[in-house]
Amino acid sequence: MKHLLSAADLGHDQAVAVLDVAEEMAATQAREIKKLPTLRGKTVVNLFFEDSTRTRISFETAAKRLSADVINFSPKGSSVSKGESLKDTVLTLGAMHTDGIVVRHPASGAPYQIAHSTWTDASVINAGDGTHQHPTQSLLDAMTIRRRLKGGQAGQDLSGLAVMIVGDVLHSRVARSGVDLFTALGAKVTLVAPATLLPVGVEAWPAEVFHDLDRALAEAPPDALMMLRVQRERMSSAGGGFFPSPQEYAREYGLDAPRLAALAPHALVMHPGPMNRGLEITSEAADGARSVIVEQVANGVAVRMAVLYLTLTGAKEPGA
Hints:
Layout: H1 12-28, E1 43-48, H2 54-65, E2 69-73, H3 86-95, E3 100-105, H4 110-115, E4 123-129, H5 135-150, E5 162-166, H6 173-184, E6 188-192, E7 208-210, H7 213-219, E8 224-227, H8 246-253, H9 257-262, E9 268-270, H10 283-287, H11 293-313
Parallel strand pairs: 1-2, 1-3, 3-4, 5-6, 5-8, 6-7, 8-9
Helix pairs in contact: 1-5, 1-11, 2-11, 5-6, 5-11
């Protein structure tokens, strides 16, 4: 594949194949010498117009483990702060013969625009665009679920599993990507949120929707429970009118001790990070034995190594 712009671009077989390559990459990271020569001579630019810790460092680590040269771009201290357009920024990168561009941008569709423009011939990977998509996050989430609940063997999907996504679905590119990928892999997806934090048209998504978390846990018990961050920076004010107060949100939609106890013994607790501890998730849940949040971060490196390898080398996925 040349680009990875959306989880919706991955069908069942292609998604399984990417996860299989990620498992192969993960196996190399258990070695004493973790670096591979795969992308030696290639240049990858992390073009991040939004703040990020996990995703940016994960992509940087993945590219360096594959021996690529990495350039980290930030609008602060660049010509973007002087008013330079996205087009001119990408044209500049193209003139430097960049091989891969990892894009995080506040505008939904920005990576698609770059990939389908004449500005650059580089492979484009979407690292999060507005409230639209975050495909590598959904892949690392799927890898985590598959490893924990299916053993992680090659060729496996998520069929027979139930994934519940709770919280600020409206502003969440993680939720959109997750619904696309998890359903493509055969999982049943349930969304839980107040009506004010659900997007228009959500009833057309391939997911069951609940407004009551306790009812959802009782009627659609999950094998994996994904708690979403409340994205207050995308709201007009601290609450933005989307919910009455943080205290009420935590009471109605937060993962606390009683809800944690109500989960099945094998159920996983997940969060894409960064967490608002005490709001959508308690420290007890985030740090408990069920939590795979740190594993999600670790698996992110392997997934991003796989995606960089497949896009920048033009390699075909196994079985393609």
